[in-house]
Amino acid sequence: MILLDSGRVIDPANGIDGTRTVLIDGDHVREVRDQPATPAEKLVHQVIDCRGRWVLPGLVDLHVHLREPGEEGKETIATGGRAAVAGGVTTVVAMPNTKPVCDSAAVARFVAARGREAGFARVIPAGAITRGSLGEQLADMAELKEAGCVCVTDDGRPVMSAGVMRRALEYARDLELPVMVHAEDLTLSAGGAMNEGPVATRLGLAGVPAAAEVTMVQRDILLAEMTGARLHIAHLSAAGSVRAVREAKARGVRVTAEATPHHFALTDAAVAGVAPGLPVPQPAGEPYDTHAKMSPPLRAEVDRQAVISGLHDGAIDAIATDHAPHGALDKQVEFAHALNGVIGLETSLALTLALVRAGGLPLARAVERLTVGPARCFKMPYGTLGAGAPADVIVLDAEREWKVDPQRFYSRSRNSPFAGWTLKGKVVKTFVGGKLVHEEGK
Amino acid sequence: MGSEMDFPRHLLELEALTRGQIEALLSLAARFKRERAKARAGESPADRRGLLRGRNVITLFFENSTRTRSSFEVAAKALGADVLTFQKDASSVAKGESLEDTVRNLDAIGADALVVRHPAAGAPRLVARSVRASVINAGDGFHEHPTQGLLDALSLRERWGTLEGKTVAIVGDIAHSRVARSNIHCLSKLGATVRVGGPSTLIPAGIEELGCKVVPSLRDALTGADAVMALRIQNERIADARLPGARDYARTWGLNARTLEMLPKEALVLHPGPVNRGVEMSSDVLDSPRSLVMDQVDSGVAVRMAALALCLRAEVPA
To answer: Nearest chain A Cα to B126, which residue?
Structure first.
């Protein structure tokens, strides 16, 4: 047995925030108790002194691009899994927009097997909604579910046809498979490179209006309501989307949602190189910073505030990174030509703690959005330290300051918008299924 | 010129310039413009061909342009620079060599100044980050066209003496206009009030935050204005459903003998060119004595001479 002795245990799934000792028995949690490790236990078991440390359930990240198969130059399941556990993330849901697309059991099994071989985070595949994610014919959802997929999604692109989306939701409902959507009306976003608004106008960049997202969120909520399917909305970025999800939940629609750290930490002013919303020490920016380019784009301050309020009141269930690795050559180009996306696995926890310190979110709520909140969206048994739960646990030095240096990331890519930021909170140990998979400095 | 060393090495955008820097450039440009006039009149003004002798000015255009490129080339030659011209098709470049690699090569060839036009906003800044040469933005996407803003200011300043207290209306496709953005920054820094107007489909979100007022009609734009600048309407705007057609546009926002009744008699008319006669401006307006269009072209060469001289730290004797 391993005893994580007398740390501050924060386990929102079980309403715990206080000094406790966590007992790990093999691959599961035996119990979380008040009593510190006894001298007798210290003789027999591995006791890790966690005084002054925080002990949390491992983080669950519903939205990660691992790029394998197909773009192993950007990331592999092994490098992404390694980056995840360094950031305290013990479960990643791997997006299916690989090459080939994960629209078959063969690809889903490959992803899951590679994840097991790598032996870092739990890697759980998401399958495609439509064949090739082309938005036309349904993917083999039953087969994907059997192969271990916890949801289906065409992430990166929307299912533009409402008719196809309706059938996808109906079919997925029969399988109790959540449908994750990338909400974007391509006819409204066409040509846009950043959020529509004063910053885009000043920089002369074509804009993507918030309505491109909100109209699709509204459409898919209506279809989920009509079909009774489980809908999960990825990376909410607009105030109108948060409001739509909140209202839908209030009237009983089966909808869940996630938001990214970059959408609660930054606004579209970051594209102009201007300081963002979170009060964190950081270097001066540069206009046309392609590390501030992603889809959905960084939005206005009102939207950022709405995302935070959604995380607060539960309109948004989960913080998910949308970790999207790209090579230097994909980003060192004209803004309009740069690829969308940023990496986030190694910064999401510290950014969330910065949000807590800035008063945006109570600590327990924040931990919930990183752990059991996302786990519940897809009915996964993780993100909790309940007796018998898989022993996915992290030990955190919450006060440790560190400077974000992408060159030192475990990820194969470097495209972080947070380079040079001074953050607080560093994971010192990560256990997955009772196995130590990350230890700081080793 | 005491202030010339204060001038930035790169001319990327007018938003970043101070009023003092703009005025220093305009004063130098006004001198060059007078000298050009003298030369045309057969007098022999100071020879400026020593200013950039032995320096290489490379014009790198990723978009078709004959006017701006020719203007820069004439300006560079008037200062004695050696001029090389690269015309590149942005779409083929996008597939092959990156912009960074392209300009690093030109830099290594020995460019002292790179005059860059590019369809992507921000591209000249990317170039400036990658090279030793001075970079002059000759128009980037919908962002800025600094020398155009400066030449408009020069033409107006010569007519009025100062822009302080004047009102300039910019009418047309503001959304897709780098000329509009550079003019808004330049004119407002020089003390003028700027109004912009056009169909709502062509007014970009938050443009008023640049320091201008959005007006709802041509009448509101023209009433009491000291000058009006019409922008070119492109056929793409009809294809992308922002405008029903040229005729409908001309009806509501076109400058013609009828609509010019709303403009004070002594007010001036500008256009960055090329003009769609009969769409944003009728021929009688374009060719009328209140039109500054040809003077703008003349100012263009002078402004580009001044920009090259300042960015390349040429010592201009009094």
So the answer is: A334
Q: Which amino acid is at A272?
A: A
Scanning the structure block, which residue is given the tokens 């130059």? A73
Chain A within 8 Å of B141 (Cβ-Cβ)? yes
Residue B316 is predicted with a pLDDT of 87
Counting residues of chain A whose pLDDT is more than 90, the rounded percentage is 98
Residues of chain A whose pLDDT is less than 70?
Answer: 276
Q: Which residue has the tokens 């009509």?
A: A226
Q: Which residues of A are catalytic?
A: 322
A78-104 residue pLDDT tens: 999 999 999 999 999 999 999 999 999
Per-domain residue ranges for chain A? 58-383
| Dist CA B164 CA B176 (whole Å) | 27
Q: Which domain holds residue B248?
A: 146-296
Are A200 and B181 inside 8 Å of each other by CB? no
Task: Look at the domain A58-383 and name its fold.
Answer: TIM Barrel (3.20.20)
What pairing do the DSSP bridges indicate for beta strands A422-432 and A16-25?
Answer: unpaired
Cα torsion at B110, B112, B118, B121 (round to 10°)? 120
Q: Tell me which H or E stretch contains A400.
A: strand A393-403
Alpha-carbon distance B272 to nearest alpha carbon in chain A (angstroms): 18
In angstroms, the CA B24 to CA B4 distance is 7
| B139 and B218 together in one domain | no
Is the Cβ pair A205, B98 closer than 8 Å?
Answer: no
Q: Assess whether B226 and B116 both reside in one domain.
A: no
Residue A198 near chain B (CB below 8 Å): yes
Are the CB atoms for A135 and A161 separated by under 8 Å?
yes
Tell me, yes or no, whether B241 lies in a domain. Answer: yes
Within a domain: B264: yes
The pLDDT confidence band at residue B90, using thresholds 50, 70 and 90, is: low
**What is the interface size between A and B, counted as CB pairs within 8 Å?**
72
pLDDT value of position A69: 98
Closest in B122, B205, B207 to A203, CB measured? B122
Closest approach of chain B CAs to the CA of A416, in angstroms?
A: 19
What is the model's pLDDT at position B89? 72
Counted domains in chain B: 2
Beta strands in B48-111 (DSSP E): 56-61, 82-87
| B3 has a pLDDT exceeding 50 | no
> CB of B303 within 8 A of CB of B76?
no
The pTM of this model reads: 0.95
- A122 CB burial (10 A radius; 0-12, 13-18, 19+): buried
Q: In the prediction, which pLDDT does B87 show?
A: 84
Say what the pLDDT of residue B35 is.
96
Q: What are phi and psi of A164, to 5 degrees?
A: -65, -40
Phi, psi dihedral angles at A179 (to 5 degrees): -110, 115
Instruction: Specify if B316 maps to a domain.
Output: no
